[in-house]
């Protein structure tokens, strides 16, 4: 027999969960004491940063990530980050320390009162083991629940006096279990999808983030080529599921009913794969579908299927479905005409702030062709997709629910997961402040992210919405007077201000070659997000 702590480390090891993203408190110390040498602890200075780092790490490794937070206060700080993890289908196994069992009821300091309710509705499942003898099984259940499709975050609160308790013979069974999911279409369903594609005159593909997370990108290319169909990325894109350099690539659909319907007009079959239908943002009501169009959605998430306001949905695993479709769809022999892209010039202005387009042209020209971009600069998302070329799976991450504070820490987590690729984090001056302490983790663990802060002194996207919503006099939209170079230096990160495109080019090239993190601050002009 062993103790609960040791059995837990064995369970985590068995599932490859040997990286702990955490921020500790007194309740967590008994678990962390004597952490085995094959585990590593990545400290984040705020729990929103801890959760977002783990989110990035899990998305990039395509495996669950383990998180350890402090009771209710620490878990509460992570809740905003959970909105993104939830919509990204990120398998986060979040644990929180709880006070000693016998004292929780008294609500002693740092007891997690009603721990199980706390993280809802942003977790798939939350639990506090009913007894120390059930801790390991509960954690096993948490890991399997996080991973099973649709994957997502889970939460387990563990009283700290449980760790030293003896285990029984049961734990060995728990540790050796395997739980698997099979989500293929039936033969009849596949035949039906093929028949609909065959019967359509002008099909269009709309791809979502789960194509990228399932690494279905190459099969999506084959499918588009065989169909001779153009490809759009579903609205509010958190990932890049299709190479933007491919002739069939058309861009990201706008996050409004009317905008999307207008761009899809003329197609009689809209095949949506790996996306919700649709994640709109600005309320511009209209016809959900163009005249004469049928929508068919294939999603791994029953919730996404059930809540869509239109179309027919099939729930299945995205990877296997795309593979089967790519193989089974006959080649229609239809050529796909490329769309003319924007002219990439990147010229310097005489004076004043740089245009976001010119900045993106420099990043695009100087970055390695397999660079990973994390984007959290909200008003310039359209310009980003226009100018930045992404060719490989896992090249793009954006907060999946729109909750800011994801970008900087997720970039650190992604770079930890992918040391062979360079991570470029494009972050707005507003967004940066929600996750700024990620700079400290990047510096301490020498994680060589290049942070590019686009500083326009304002919440640019909200300025755009203020115009749309007749709220131009709303207070609290500007954020002047922040010196990101000084902040970065304060956290131990090398930092420079780039005042010209030539400056940017020089500093960016140096940053890409560095073994540690760099922050570059660039003043940009304000553009409309619409
Ligand atoms: N708080 C959180 C956690 N998430 C949010 N999405 C917002 C507030 C609201 N918000 C947006 O949706 S965009 C935005 C805010 C504050 C402005 C971000 O400013 P930025 O980028 O400087 O990062 P732009 O390009 O100037 O818009
Ligand atoms: Ca801004």
Topology diagram in text:
Blueprint: H1 4-14, E1 19-22, H2 29-32, E2 40-43, H3 47-61, E3 65-69, H4 71-87, E4 92-98, H5 101-104, E5 125-127, H6 135-147, E6 154-159, H7 170-175, H8 187-199, E7 203-207, H9 209-213, H10 217-227, E8 231-233, E9 249-252, H11 257-264, E10 269-273, E11 294-299, H12 302-307, E12 312-315, H13 318-328, H14 356-366, E13 372-376, H15 381-387, E14 396-397, H16 407-417, E15 423-428, H17 429-432, H18 438-444, E16 450-455, H19 460-468, H20 484-490, E17 494-498, H21 501-513, E18 518-523
Parallel strand pairs: 1-2, 1-3, 3-4, 4-6, 5-6, 7-8, 7-10, 8-9, 10-11, 11-12, 13-14, 13-15, 15-16, 16-18, 17-18
Please, could you describe this protein's structure?
Helix 14 runs parallel beside helix 15 and helix 14 packs parallel to helix 21. The strands form three sheets. The protein has a six-stranded parallel β-sheet. A six-stranded parallel β-sheet has the order 9-8-7-10-11-12. The chain has 21 helices and 18 strands. The mean pLDDT is 96. It is globular. It has helices spanning 4-14, 29-32, 47-61, 71-87, 101-104, 135-147, 170-175, 187-199, 209-213, 217-227, 257-264, 302-307, 318-328, 356-366, 381-387, 407-417, 429-432, 438-444, 460-468, 484-490, 501-513, and strands spanning 19-22, 40-43, 65-69, 92-98, 125-127, 154-159, 203-207, 231-233, 249-252, 269-273, 294-299, 312-315, 372-376, 396-397, 423-428, 450-455, 494-498, 518-523. It folds into three domains: 4-176, Thiamin diphosphate (ThDP)-binding fold, Pyr/PP domains (Rossmann fold), CATH 3.40.50; 187-328, 3-Layer(aba) Sandwich (Rossmann fold); 356-523, Rossmann fold (3-Layer(aba) Sandwich). The N and C termini lie far apart (62 Å). It is of the alpha/beta class. It binds ligand TZD and calcium ion (CA).
């Amino acid at each position: 027999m062993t103790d609960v702590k040791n059995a837990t480390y064995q369970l985590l090891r068995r599932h490859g969960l040997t990286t702990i993203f955490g921020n500790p408190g007194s309740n967590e110390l008994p678990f962390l004491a004597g952490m085995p040498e094959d585990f590593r602890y990545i400290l984040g200075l705020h729990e929103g940063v801890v959760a977002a780092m783990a989110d990035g790490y899990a998305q990039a490794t395509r495996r669950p990530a383990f998180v350890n937070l402090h009771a209710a206060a620490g878990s509460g700080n992570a809740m905003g980050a959970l909105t993104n993890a939830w919509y990204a289908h990120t398998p986060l196994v979040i644990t929180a320390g709880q006070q000693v069992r016998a004292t929780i009821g008294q609500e002693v300091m740092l007891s997690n009162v009603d721990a199980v309710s706390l993280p809802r509705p942003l977790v798939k499942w939350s639990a506090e083991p009913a007894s120390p003898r059930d801790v390991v099984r509960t954690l096993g259940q948490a890991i399997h629940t996080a991973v099973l499709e649709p994957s997502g975050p889970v939460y387990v609160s563990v009283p700290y006096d449980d760790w030293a308790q003896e285990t029984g013979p049961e734990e060995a069974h728990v540790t050796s279990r395997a739980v698997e999911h099979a989500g293929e279409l039936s033969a009849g369903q596949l035949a039906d999808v093929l028949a609909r594609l065959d019967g359509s005159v002008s099909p269009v593909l709309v791809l979502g983030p789960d194509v990228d997370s399932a690494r279905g990108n190459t099969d999506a290319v084959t499918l588009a080529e065989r169909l001779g169909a153009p490809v759009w990325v579903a609205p509010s894109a958190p990932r890049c599921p299709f190479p933007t350099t491919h002739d069939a690539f058309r861009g990201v659909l706008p996050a409004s009913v009317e905008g999307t319907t207008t761009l899809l007009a003329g197609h009689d079959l809209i095949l949506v794969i790996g996306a919700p239908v649709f994640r709109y943002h600005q309320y511009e009501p209209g016809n959900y579908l163009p005249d004469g169009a049928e929508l068919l959605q294939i999603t791994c998430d029953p919730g996404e299927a059930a809540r869509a306001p239109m179309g027919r949905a099939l729930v299945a695993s995205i990877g296997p479905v795309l593979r089967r479709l790519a193989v089974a769809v006959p080649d229609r022999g239809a050529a796909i005409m490329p769309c003319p892209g924007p002219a990439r010039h990147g010229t310097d202005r005489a004076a004043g702030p740089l245009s976001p387009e010119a900045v993106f042209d420099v990043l695009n020209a100087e970055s390695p062709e397999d660079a990973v971009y994390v984007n959290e600069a909200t008003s310039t998302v359209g310009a980003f997709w226009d100018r930045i070329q992404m060719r490989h799976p896992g090249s793009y991450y954006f907060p999946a629910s729109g909750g800011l504070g994801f970008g900087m820490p997720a970039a650190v987590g992604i770079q930890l997961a992918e040391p062979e690729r360079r991570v470029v984090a494009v972050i707005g001056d507003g967004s940066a402040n929600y996750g700024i302490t990620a700079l400290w983790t990047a510096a301490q663990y020498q994680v060589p992210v290049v942070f590019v802060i686009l500083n326009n002194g304002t919440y640019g996207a909200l300025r755009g919405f203020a115009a749309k919503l007749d709220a131009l006099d709303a207070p609290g939209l500007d954020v002047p007077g922040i010196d990101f170079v000084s902040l970065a230096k304060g956290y131990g990160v090398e930092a420079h201000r780039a005042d010209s495109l030539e400056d940017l080019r020089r500093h960016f090239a140096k940053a890409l070659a560095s073994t540690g993190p760099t922050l570059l601050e660039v003043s940009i002009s304000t553009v409309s997000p619409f």
